[in-house]
Specification:
alpha/beta, Nucleotidyltransferase, domain 5, 5-stranded mixed beta sheet, globular, disordered C terminus, DNA recombination, nuclease, crossover junction DNA endonuclease activity, EC 3.1.21.10, DNA repair
Length: 173
């Protein structure tokens, strides 16, 4: 892989389904490599977290990403849901840290605004734009599309030379 090409692993963490997507970013349009969903619905408690952790580690080992872009948790009305989602997100971040993959975090609003053009876009709009931007023949599954959108968001920020931290503090680009 040439030095100017970066492999970005996008993750949409979830306690039952965690989406992942990998793109290669270069001087031109990003290229799709792979995407999918880590499904752990049939497991309970700690076993779910273990399976998410091991799966993310396997993805990192197989595809050797240069960076991981992760969707930040937004506050749910239900604190229990937020805690459960936070645990899943925690094991994803831990896998990246153990594998020495740098992590960038983006809010759902940042991702949707960057990919769709409005921060409160629905899932169908995100799927449509991900399919168009990556020139995919099929619509990606919802969680995989969210993960690819996260990777594409990071790619866009880096291509434009924008510091994501400044965007989250209210600066406009």
């Amino acid at each position: 892989m040439p030095a100017s090409v970066h492999r970005i692993l996008g993750i949409d963490p979830g306690s039952r389904k965690t989406g992942f997507g990998i793109i290669e970013s270069g001087r031109y349009n990003p290229n799709y490599l792979v995407s999918g969903v880590i499904r752990v619905e049939k497991f309970s408690g700690a076993q779910r977290l273990k399976n998410i952790f091991e799966s993310v580690c396997q993805i990192i080992d197989q595809y050797q990403p240069d960076i991981m872009a992760v969707e930040k948790v937004f506050v749910y009305k239900n604190p229990k849901s937020a805690i459960t989602l936070g645990q899943a997100r925690g094991v994803v971040l831990c896998a990246a840290a153990i594998k020495n993959v740098p992590i960038m975090e983006y809010t759902p609003t940042q991702i949707k605004s960057t990919i769709v053009g409005k921060g409160h876009a629905n899932k169908d709009q995100v799927q449509f734009m991900v399919q168009r931007l990556l020139k995919l023949t099929d619509t990606p599954q919802e969680d995989a599309a969210d993960a690819l959108a996260c990777a594409l968001c990071h790619d866009r920020y880096m291509t434009l030379g924008i510091d994501p931290e400044q965007i989250s503090k209210g600066s406009k680009f």
